[in-house]
TrEMBL record, chain A:
Entry-linked InterPro entries: C2_B9-type_dom
Organism: Monopterus albus
Keyword Hydrolase annotated: no
Annotated protein name in UniProt: B9 domain-containing protein 1
Gene Ontology terms: cellular component: MKS complex
Database matches in Pfam families: B9-C2
Compartments reported by the entry: Cytoplasm, Cytoskeleton, Cilium basal body
Length: 195, 1646
């Protein structure tokens, strides 16, 4: 409780990229980054990261576990442009080329507390058949020019995607001074009144 | 078979005769049949006949379906039969089935069809016919019905059939027999059934024995069977008569009976059939034991064919196709009527809705087909129709006066959104976040004062308990005692008073007091009396109820309640008691006497007074009467005054009659009766003297009869009670927060909960509601709600006592056991009178209080914070609760409420209401008569527009969202309003202001200022136009996808493998393109490769100073050697970053160096649009590095030599960034802009001569530099707008042009081809419309009247002096707008196209042959040049520089020629080469130039968009002179500013010399005079080393001039003794076109 009149609120995101469920693929790794609006500033923690490569265990044949921690604090003046976590999963294809396995994005939950999100992933489709074949052959699948595209709505109508797999992320959210700035994020905020 | 053949013949003979008979017979048959089968056969015969006929004719189809179903069934059966041929029973069934199939169709098809079924042979057609009626009759019903009926029918048919078969053999028995049998079946059903069965079997046996061969069968079938054998007919007809009679007789019962009986009769068979089990299970096995041949099961069937004609015929019966033809009027009208046209009769007939004639005809035909169709037609023979209902004008009122004062009724009124009641009521508001509040709700228990499960005894018991409670409270309060004491005290006081003043004359005051006392005594006494009476009645009632209970217990013989009332007697001393009693009475009597006496006195006085009044009145009356009498007399005498007096009289009489009545004389009060009354009363309300005092005591110690001993009804009740559970829900602010445990109801109807709930609250408490729920079994019902008042903030747990809250429920409950129920009349009297209705009710003991924390701090809100009004005056503050939500719209109600609740008008909370009331009272707001759409729009507005504008933060957010340049990438908009500083907007506002008030200082010319403003406006409108288009994405923008390698690429790749790894001359490779959206500062670099330069000017030996020049300067006139004597280097500056190459030697140096310059976009915005509008230019300056020795310091052996490096500007190349961006790379040799005069340098001349034509004499003069410029990474240039624009061009022209361009791109993708362009209004215009001869300014033509070449050069110079402004910069989108020449001259800014068009038009008007070249050039990229044809030579003009080149000039910047345009046509270059040197410009050759308009598509005569004539403003010399002074002043200031360390001295003498020299330069066009000029200067300034040059610029703004001067670096001379000379000359051209000359020189004294 530093000041009574805060001009910024803080959003702390702790959590982890728990794992993924890609039944068809193995040896995947995940890149993540945060996408946020003009009014947001990351004040600590990693904004971008890349996980280790994981392969499927014997017991849980579908689960890929990364358990990659996320720890970022944002400060902001405006809820517009609330941070989004953008994930892109890569892995080798049959020929050993590193290809995209899925893009996905989710908003950071805005209520304090623990949240688990299962993010459906998708990949852009080749624009026509032959292309599909050659891209498969050459291991050059279509990719987004920027993974951050999946966090925005503009221009997506020109793409075609195919869904594959899920990534599970857990978040522990803390906020500070949101209420003081007049942003009420729900009942759980009200319960968390300072003593 | 023998038996069969005769029968067939026999039938054949009979055919003719029988036919006639059949008709009558069939009719009867049908009647008979139908009646037999229709379940409701009560219809009369006649009626039946008609229905029958209808059925026959119309209901054919259902019969068909039926047939089909049956056939299917048969097929199945057949199959089954074949499978299990040994199952004989089924054969019978089969037989029957086959018969049945034929039935529906038999009548229509006739015998031919009958023959189709081979199994039909044994059945007489009559049998088949029989089923017809029924099948048809019932078929419309659902299939089940049909099937059952039909099966029934089948059986019936089967019986006679088999019988007939057997009969046929005997040749004697006819149908009649069967008929009789059949009829008989109705009368004696069971025996008949057996009989038929027997016969049936026989028949079956017979059939098995004599089966026909296939041919015989066929022959048989080909016959047309007649229904009856011949000999049977006579008899039959006879018997038929008979039969009909019998039928008629039996009609009523028999038919029905028969139906049902037959039903029953064949029940088992029917079931068997429908379920496809063997039909006759109980028949003997031997029935079909005989071996059967395959023919039995084989069905030889002719392909079914339905004749086309028949089909048509049948269809025509069913279908109706209305004709298209007009129906004659006569048909549509009733007979013998002529059409009557109302319109002709002059009546108004509305316009009918338009229906096409064909449709109308069809409709008419259709209607006429209907019954009563004619009623649809009017008198005029047309279908009756209402006039067209669509109104011509809209009924909605027009809203034209939108902008002006709107009708007040239509004005939208902003209403604030109603807040949810609890929304803003967090106790823990921001101001006090520490708040932590807790409400403790203690729910102790519940007692029912009535419950549906009460027994009668309970009711009484409860009443008793209630009374006892009442008694106890009364006892506790002891009002009677208090009052008695008070009375005694008063009496004593009164007595004392009287004694003190004993009989003496009383003062007024004392008298007053006495009377007061006595009055008090009187009141108190009365009160006491009433209390005593109440006590007494209470006691009496208790006793009465107790007696009732006792009676009831006795009566019902069991006890339910433990109540026991004891009356304790307290004995009193009889004597004293009596004494007291008497005293009391006496005192009372005395008092009453006194009172009545006083009363009497008062009344008497009053009476007297009244009497007086009355008497007075009487007297008056009498006098009046007298008067009147007099008047009456006078009345007879004169009439005149009569009326007035009459009136007077009547007036006076009026009140007189209402005078006081005569008062009644008073009677003296009867004092004797007083005592009597007192005694009576006392005996009523008090116990008798000496009687013991009765004190009732209610105890619950009685025994309750055990369950076993109770009667059944009571047991049921107790069971019920035991099942009953209760719990309480706690609702806080109408939200359930908790609930108690469910507790069972005890036998005394008490429930103990004893639970305390701690509510941690966030919202302000509004209400606490306890809901009592009753749970019986699994059902749960809300019994009652108890609203508990909220505690005061001081009411803390522990200090608040339990309170009892009464509740009741009006649920009606009734039981069939002892429970009395609720809301049910109940009587305890024997006769059932005196009924009571008792409702469930009870008391809930609970308390609500604020909790206390662990440390004892109260968890209650501070007193001040709690809105006091919330609880106490919910309706007071909350208008909604007061008048209801609907009333809010009613102004009157609100006003009423406001006045009632006495709102504080000064309270800001009430401001809105006060405002509303003011408005309401100010003028009655009439309800609008209009319906408005989007009236809710404002409700959804976030804030009002004013607020939006006022709030700086919102404004900032809005501007950012609008992508205003300054805020596009603004980071972190402050969260709070106060943190937004005004400075944020300063720049933006400044820009806005500039948009309106153009800084004249900057522009130095009012006209330019206006133009700039205009340009700004156009820019904005265009930007708005393209804003949407910018947000369109392509797949390539989002997804990276590898391109599919084509075979060509693959081949090339293969070829590449063979290439050397490191070739000697590496090729530039295409790089991957990067979209601009993900870039940030520092990511982009500008790569500039400076390769080499040609013909750099060389230093001129300073002849008059031999020996003084440094070692690098070689003296003498050795020309060849002196060529080495220039050490040029290149300096590149871009966005204030300056880089330079190494120094090379000689006039043709080779650097081959790459310079990297960082690029940063304005505002950090790397979007395409932003990059396109970057105005920065790359300056490439060539300098000569000159090293001077400043003198030898020879004190110490002369070893150190001080040198001074100077650099002299030689020339520059400017390349705008936008060009690099749009071109992605710039590669080529450019002409260096060298000043006309370079002091101290001489230009190298090319040695070759270019031929005789003298315009070309200086073509290859000047220096050149080879550059390669690109951006790293490669950026995707913005694409042109993918939008179609409005146009006024004809469609076919546009299509043709599209086709032309498409073809051009396909065949030659690298050649630009333009046929349509976009004008300033954003409309598509065909390009030839721009070309039209236009007059150049007359002044220019007059300058060289004889020499046309000179004139052309001058005109070109004029055009080139109009400032150039690329469209992509002005319009921030890659769209090319073409302005017309007059627009161009007004704007005085435009890019190459405008210049080219203007120049071309000038040349045309000068009578030259001129074309517009659309092509690409360096460094501009796609551009437009002008081509002229003169003296059989083609000359290419660069319109923006005024330079001209011959066709074969190698340094011509024009690289590609795409197409040629003139006023008539567009030609596309289809030659092999695009370079002007290698191609032919002869447009007549169709092989080389593809024309747009050809013979097949001729020129449609497009008019020009250009004006007919250009009007120029005259030269304004005064303005030019003024501008000249100002520029000079500004430049001098700037140069001094750039040299902050050194003093800047101006050589005035030199300046004047230069000033004289500049106009000459302008006149000569910068040529030829340099030499003379140099000499002149040298002479003047002999001892100074001078370096300097004149600059020539077109004038648009001051800024470019300053930039240009800065880039020369003249000011950089460090020598302390340097002096400067600056001269500015502005040469005015018509129409405000100005040529600015700046001569800048530095002089160093040597």
């Amino acid at each position: 409780m530093a000041t009574n009149n805060p001009s910024m609120f803080l959003l702390t995101v702790n959590g982890q990229i728990e794992g993924a469920n890609f039944p068809e693929f193995d040896n995947l790794y995940c890149k993540y980054c945060f996408v946020y609006g003009h009014d947001w500033v990351p004040s600590s923690g990693l904004e971008e990261g890349i996980t280790q490569i994981t392969c499927k265990g014997i017991q849980s044949s579908h689960k890929l576990i990364w358990n990659f921690p996320l720890e970022t604090t944002f400060k902001s003046t405006n809820p517009s442009g609330w941070p989004q976590l953008v994930m892109s999963v890569y892995g080798p294809d049959a020929f050993g080329n590193d290809v995209i396995r899925g893009y996905g994005a989710t908003h950071i939950p805005f209520t304090p507390g623990q949240h688990t999100r299962t993010i459906p992933m998708f990949v852009p489709e080749p624009s026509w058949r032959l292309q599909k074949f050659t891209s498969w052959l050459l291991g050059r699948r279509p990719e987004y020019t920027d993974p951050k595209v999946v966090a925005q709505g503009e221009g997506r109508e020109v793409t075609r995607v195919r869904s594959q797999g899920f990534v599970t992320v857990s978040f522990h959210i803390m906020t500070k001074d949101m209420k003081k700035l007049g942003y009420d994020t729900g009942p759980s905020d009200a319960w968390a009144l300072p003593k | 078979m023998a038996t069969l053949a005769p029968s067939a013949e026999f039938r054949g003979k009979l055919r003719k005769k029988g036919r006639a008979l059949q008709e009558t017979w069939a009719k009867n048959k049908n009647e008979d049949d139908v009646q037999a089968l229709v379940p409701v056969a009560t219809l009369s015969k006649g009626k039946h006949q008609t229905t029958m006929k209808e059925a026959q004719s119309s209901e054919e189809d259902p019969g068909e379906t039926l047939k089909r179903t049956l056939r299917a069934q048969r097929q199945r059966q057949k199959k089954r039969l074949l499978e299990q041929s040994s199952a004989h029973e089924s054969h019978d069934n089969d037989d029957v089935e086959k018969i049945s199939t034929i039935q529906p169709q038999s009548e229509d098809r006739g015998s031919a069809e009958k023959a189709a079924d081979p199994m039909n042979l044994s059945k007489p057609p009559s049998g088949a016919q029989r089923g017809l009626g029924s099948g048809i009759q019932h078929s419309p019903k659902n299939l089940d019905d049909i099937v059952t009926l039909h099966l029934q029918e089948k059986l019936r048919a089967a019986r006679p059939a088999s019988r007939l078969q057997s009969l046929r053999d005997r040749d004697t028995i006819t149908r009649f027999d069967r008929e009789v049998d059949h009829d008989g079946a109705g009368k004696h059903d069971v025996p008949l059934a057996i009989r038929t069965r027997v016969k049936f079997r026989e028949a079956a046996k017979r059939a098995v024995k004599g089966l026909p061969t296939a041919e015989e069968a066929y022959g048989f079938f080909t016959y047309n069977f007649e229904p009856d054998p011949k000999d049977g007919t006579v008899r039959m007809s006879r018997k038929k008569q008979k039969q009909r009679k019998t039928v008629e007789e039996d009609m009523g019962e028999a038919d029905e009976q028969e139906d049902s009986e037959v039903d029953e009769d064949n029940q088992d068979e029917k079931i068997g059939q429908s379920e496809e089990v063997p039909l006759v299970q109980e028949e003997e096995e031997g029935l079909f034991a005989i071996q059967q041949s395959s023919q039995d099961f084989l069905e030889v069937k002719k392909a079914e064919y339905r004749g086309y004609r028949k089909l048509i015929q049948r269809e025509s019966e069913l279908l109706f196709t209305p004709s298209f033809r007009t129906v004659p009027v006569a048909i549509k009208l009733p007979e013998n009527m002529k059409p009557r046209y109302l319109e002709d009769e002059g009546l108004y007939v509305g316009e009918r809705p338009s229906v096409s004639l064909t449709n109308e005809n069809i409709l008419e035909n259709r209607i006429l087909k209907m019954e009563e169709g004619k009623k649809w037609f009017g008198d005029d023979g047309r279908i009756i129709a209402l006039p067209d209902p669509i109104k011509e004008s809209s009924t909605r009122p027009p809203l034209i006066h939108m902008e002006e004062d709107l009708d007040p009724a239509l004005q939208t009124v902003y209403k604030k959104a109603l807040k949810s009641k609890y929304a803003g009521l967090y106790i823990s508001s921001a101001a006090d976040p520490e708040g932590d509040y807790q409400l403790d709700v203690d729910v102790s228990g519940l007692i029912f004062s009535h419950h549906p499960l009460f027994s009668r005894e309970h009711v009484l018991g409860a009443r008793l308990a209630q009374l006892y409670d009442q008694y106890l409270t009364r006892q506790h309060n002891n009002l009677t005692g208090h009052l008695t004491d008070k009375l005694n005290g008063l009496r004593r006081g009164l007595r004392n008073m009287l004694e003190i003043h004993g009989g003496q004359c009383l003062t007024q005051a004392v008298q007053q007091r006495i009377s007061e006392y006595s009055l008090e005594v009187q009141n108190t006494r009365q009160l006491r009396d009433s209390e005593q009476e109440k006590d007494r009645t209470l006691l009496k009632n208790m006793v009465k109820v107790w007696k009732e209970i006792k009676a009831l217990r006795e009566f019902q013989k069991f006890t339910n309640t433990p109540y026991k009332l004891c009356l304790r007697k307290e004995n009193v001393d009889r004597a004293s008691d009596k004494q007291e009693y008497e005293d009391e009475i006496l005192a009372e009597v005395v008092e009453l006497e006194a009172e009545s006496e006083m009363d009497y006195q008062r009344k008497l006085a009053e009476y007297k007074k009244q009497l007086e009044e009355w008497k007075l009145w009487r007297r008056k009356q009498k006098t009046k009467k007298k008067k009147r009498k007099k008047k009456k007399k006078s009345q007879a005498q004169g009439d005149t005054e009569d009326e007035d007096e009459d009136q007077e009289v009547s007036e006076s009489e009026g009140p007189a009659e209402e005078g006081p009545p005569k008062p009644e004389p008073l009677e003296k009060p009867d004092l004797d009766s007083i005592e009597q009354q007192v005694r009576e009363k006392a005996s009523r309300i008090r116990r008798k003297p000496g009687e013991s005092i009765l004190i009732p005591e209610l105890s619950a110690s009685g025994n309750i009869t055990a369950y076993e001993l109770c009667p059944r009804a009571e047991k049921a009740r107790r069971d019920h009670v035991a099942k009953c559970f209760l719990f309480i829900k706690i609702l806080y602010n109408n939200k359930e927060v908790s609930q108690t445990d469910s507790r069972s109801l005890s036998t005394d109807f008490r429930v103990h909960f004893g639970q305390i709930f701690n509510l941690k609250i966030v919202n302000c408490p509004q209400s606490i509601n306890l809901q009592v729920f009753e749970e019986i079994g699994s059902s749960c019902s809300l019994l009652a709600q108890v609203f508990v008042p909220l505690p005061e903030p001081s009411g803390l747990t522990g200090s608040v006592p339990l309170e009892e809250f009464e509740f009741s429920s009006n649920q009606r409950v009734m039981f069939d056991h002892e429970g009395v129920g609720s809301d049910v009349p109940l009587s305890f009297e024997a006769d059932g009178s005196n009924k009571q209705i008792l409702m469930t009710s009870g008391k809930l003991a609970c308390c609500v209080s604020w909790g206390t924390g662990e440390d004892g701090t109260p968890l209650a809100p501070p007193v001040s914070q709690q809105p006091s009004g919330i609880r106490s005056g919910l309706g007071y503050f909350d208008a909604v609760t007061y008048i209801g939500a609907s009333g809010l719209y009613d102004m009157k109600k609100i006003g009423e409420w406001a006045t009632q609740s006495r709102l504080d008008p000064n309270d800001p909370k009430n401001a809105s209401i006060m405002q509303l009331l003011k408005v309401a009272s100010g003028g009655e707001v009439t309800a609008p008569e209009y319906f408005r759409l989007e009236q809710l729009q404002q409700e959804f507005d976030f804030v009002t527009d004013e607020e939006l504008d006022r709030s700086k933060r919102l404004r900032l957010l809005r501007l950012r969202n609008q992508e205003v340049a300054e805020f596009r990438n603004y980071k972190c908009v402050p969260a709070l309003e106060r943190e937004v500083t005004d400075e944020v907007f300063q720049e933006y506002e400044k820009r806005l202001k500039e948009g309106e008030i153009i800084d004249t200082k900057e522009h130095l010319d009012p006209h330019r200022a206006l133009v700039a403003k205009y340009l700004q406006k156009i820019r904005e409108s265009v930007i708005n136009r393209f804003r949407l288009a910018k947000h369109h994405y392509h797949l390539s923008d989002l997804v990276i996808e590898e391109e599919i390698p084509s075979i060509g690429i693959l081949g090339r790749n293969l070829f590449k493998l063979a290439e050397p790894k490191r070739p000697l001359k590496p090729q530039r490779k295409e790089r991957k393109k990067v979209t601009t959206q993900n870039l940030s500062d520092g990511d982009i670099k500008l790569l500039i490769n400076i390769i080499r330069a040609y013909s750099i000017p060389i230093r001129r030996p300073q002849s008059n100073k031999p020996g003084q020049s440094s070692q690098g300067v070689i003296q003498g006139s050795d020309w060849l050697l002196s060529q080495v004597q220039v050490r040029p280097f290149v300096e590149v500056s871009f966005q204030r970053t300056v880089l330079q190459t190494t120094t090379a030697d000689g006039p043709n140096p080779c650097w081959n160096e790459e310079l990297q310059l960082p690029f940063s976009a304005p505002n950090g915005d790397y979007s395409t649009a932003s990059l396109q509008s970057v105005k920065d230019e790359v300056f490439i300056n060539i300098f000569d590095e000159v090293v001077y020795e400043t003198g030898v310091n020879d004190k110490d052996r002369g070893k150190s030599v001080h040198t001074q490096v100077e650099r002299h500007w030689l020339g520059s190349v400017k390349i705008p960034f936008s060009t690099i961006y749009s071109q992605t790379r710039i590669d080529g040799t450019f002409k260096v802009n060298t000043p006309a005069v370079l002091l101290g340098y001489s230009k190298e001349r090319s040695y070759g001569t270019n031929g005789g034509y003298d315009i070309l004499r200086s073509l290859s003069e000047g220096a050149f530099i080879t550059l390669f410029i690109t951006i790293e990474p490669q950026l995707v240039p913005g694409e042109s707008i993918r939008e179609k624009f409005d146009t006024q061009e004809p469609e076919h022209l546009l299509q043709a042009s599209e086709r032309f361009e498409r073809d051009a791109v396909q065949s030659h993708p690298d050649r630009p081809c333009i046929t349509t362009v976009i004008d300033l209004n954003g409309k598509t215009v065909f390009i030839t419309r721009y070309i039209r001869p236009l007059n150049p300014p007359q002044e220019l033509l007059d300058a060289f009247p004889s020499n046309s070449q000179e004139a052309m050069a001058l005109v070109a110079r004029f055009v080139s002096l109009i400032p150039s402004l690329p469209d992509s910069i002005s319009f921030s989108g890659a769209c090319d707008l073409w302005s017309t020449c007059d627009q161009f001259l007004t704007l005085l800014a435009g890019d190459e196209e405008e210049h080219a068009v203007l120049l071309c038009n000038y040349f045309l008007s000068m009578g030259k042959k001129a074309w517009l070249i659309i092509g690409t050039a360096i460094p501009e990229g796609p551009t437009a040049y002008v081509l002229t044809f003169e003296q059989s030579r083609y000359v290419i003009w660069n319109p923006s520089s005024g330079q001209y080149y011959g066709q074969y000039d190698t340094f011509c910047p024009l690289q590609t020629v795409g197409c040629l345009v003139n006023a008539d046509n567009v030609w596309f270059n289809v030659q092999q080469y695009t370079s002007p040197m290698r191609m032919s410009f002869d447009t007549t050759k169709a092989k080389l130039w593809k024309p747009f308009f050809s013979r097949s598509f001729s020129h449609p005569g497009l008019s020009s968009v250009q004006p007919e004539e250009l009007v120029y403003r005259h030269i304004d010399k005064a303005a030019a002179a003024e501008l000249q002074d100002r520029i000079e002043k500004i430049l001098k200031e700037k140069i001094m500013e750039w040299r902050p360390r050194q003093p800047t001295r101006w050589n005035r003498y030199c300046t004047t010399t230069l000033k004289h020299f500049l106009p000459k330069l302008e006149l000569s066009g910068g040529q030829d005079i340099a030499e003379g000029h140099r000499h002149e200067l040298q002479n003047l300034l002999g001892d100074n080393r001078i370096s300097g040059f004149p600059l020539n610029l077109p004038f648009s703004e001051i800024r470019p001039i300053i930039e240009a001067v800065y880039s020369t670096g003249v000011h950089n001379i460090q020598a302390s003794n340097a002096e400067f000379a600056l001269a500015v000359y502005v040469h005015p051209f018509p129409n405000n076109v100005l040529s600015v000359w700046v001569y800048l020189a530095s002089l160093v004294r040597t």
